[in-house]
Design goal:
445 residues; alpha/beta; Rossmann fold; UDP-N-acetylmuramoyl-L-alanine:D-glutamate ligase; 3 domains; 17 helices; 20 strands
Length: 445
Amino acid sequence: MKKKRLVILGGGESGVGTALLAKAKGYEVFVSDKGIIKEKYKKVLIHNEIEWEEQKHTESKILNAYVVMKSPGIPEKVALVQQLINKEIPVISEIEFASKYTKATIVGITGSNGKTTTATLTDHILKQELNVGLAGNIGDSFAKQVLEEDYKNYVLEISSFQLDGIVDFKPQIAVITNITPDHLDRYNYQFENYIASKFSIAKNQTAEDYLIYDADDEVITNWLKTHPVQSTLLPFSLVKVIENGAYLKQENIIITIDNNQIIMPTNKLALEGKHNLKNAMAASTVAHLLKIRKQTIRESLQNFQGVEHRLEHVLKINKVQYINDSKATNVNATYYALESMDAPTIWIVGGVDKGNNYEELFPFVNEKVKAIICLGVDNEKLMSTFGGMVDVIAETQFMTEAIKMAYKIAENGDNVLLSPACASFDLFENYEDRGRQFKEAVRNL
């Protein structure tokens, strides 16, 4: 019998993880990357005798595939992907492929913002009592973990790009943190295409499965009215009373599932800000479903350290707090950051604008921001949008320069916040690189 041929487009974390799992499951595997494959991944491919190529896609070796696993970074519009689709060769994501080889309980978490914090927090709570792997958009690839660890439970942070490549994938528990316009360049600038992509996390769910979502998010609630799902719904809200799900009552989170209720005081939560109350509600609801003890959930919420580059308190220098929120790559994320500021703020913003509309930030800028430092190659839109709102607005293309400017302007009790609302690729490798440079520049003051 001829081996089934799996072609993998993209030799990064998800590609190489899938290659290892596929080889172990008896596939003939070929990895093709249009860019350069990182040294550490090349070593793994060579060591495991997996055929690969870089800086090109050899069509004759790709168009004869039985199935293709595409890295989430490659858009569907690419000619090669279109050729595969026209030939009716299935093009799937790592999440789809790997999920076929595990019997684990899967918690899938998606959303425009908050998914990394919610996934990391959920993992932090569950691993106190369960055998859990954290994967998807974070850490080691899901496929590699299925091969090497095969945990009993997985918490997967899943992007819309990963969801675009699913066929049968079905998490027993799905979470949608929120949906705001993001990555619209990948969805023909149609917001509803992006919404549909996020909701595909629930498309294979049945009434035995759960969908946890933000009931205060009109995009989500309106979509559910016109596109009902089979899942058992567990909404969470800061303003409504929720019978089945989670809500806020005075200073407590109340979670009810099948008349089984738990109460979590919010006054000791480690993470600040309204959006983190929601992330805590989502994570606690998952934990309650998986029968984690109340005391464990409470303690975990109180000692959780947060996620790097997400409202990360770096240092206090001369009574000025420096905060790294480099992970804020869209306006909605920066909205949460500015909302949670409780002192006059010097805001560092800018990068690759994805068609941003900054209007929703105006109230916070007027109320809390005393100076703006634009850090990007092209800052014109920011300068014209915010120029009249603050006394000081400056621009630079160097992180060290931005920090020096902020240091000069800052007074006792101020915050210096890096929350760019934009992608980082104009001046940095990625948002992590941007965040690390911020931290380094602050430490060098």
